[in-house]
Design a protein that fits this description.
Blueprint (H helix, E strand, L loop, with lengths): L1 H57 L9 H5 L6 H18 L1 H14 L3 H18 L8 E6 L6 E9 L2 H6 L6 E7 L7 E7 L4 E2 L4 H9 L8 H17 L1
Antiparallel strand pairs: 1-2, 1-5, 2-3, 3-4
Helix pairs in contact: 1-3, 3-4
Length: 241
Amino acid sequence: MKRAMSQKSPDNEPVERVKHHYFAGLRNNFLAGIVVIAPIAVTIWLIWSVIGWIDSWVLPFLPAQWSPEQYTGINMRGLGVLIFLVFTVIIGWLAKGLIGRSLLNAGEHLVDRMPVVRSVYNGLKQIAETVFSSRDANFDRACLIEYPRKGLWAIAFISTEAKGEINQKVQVNEPVVSVFLPTTPNPTSGFLLFVPRHDVVELDMSVEDAAKLVISAGLVYPNGKEAAAAVTELAQTKKSA
């Protein structure tokens, strides 16, 4: 009986090996398909969701007799986005004119008399003007700073050079830079830091690549050699100093 089992096992071994390679190949193909499909599916889902969200806000203001869905019976997804874009362009065009500026100033004067509304409106207006209007106030450079202590490095985005009271009260004999330090995996939250210029290591990688590195928690590393070289160079400079 033992001899029969020993003679049968060598014949079954190639079969088991073939099955193992077959299922391993299926698994690898499945994972490769997930890598290809997942980014495309998530991107399409996000775009579709944002379009639906804008439609849900805009279309209720559209009179029922003007809705194409009433006549065609088809859900015209994206119609709200189109209306929103056209409406925004018209409002911007009117705001540049004399009548538009006069109405806007009158509305802002009225809002300034409302205690709570005034604070919210002025804060949102300042943020919008900073993000969309100022050319020198955008996050156009990625950098490295030592945070939360010496020897630990974190990716941040350079905003502008510190101005006004901040620049006057920080007692250093060099320019002070304001940087935004994002958190992982949500880069929209983080910390505003004011750092001396010599403590900021500018990176050659783009802001988009740095954001990918932050969001992926270090898994997507587009320009790792450049970042490592910058850290090594700064460390050597501090040792020699």
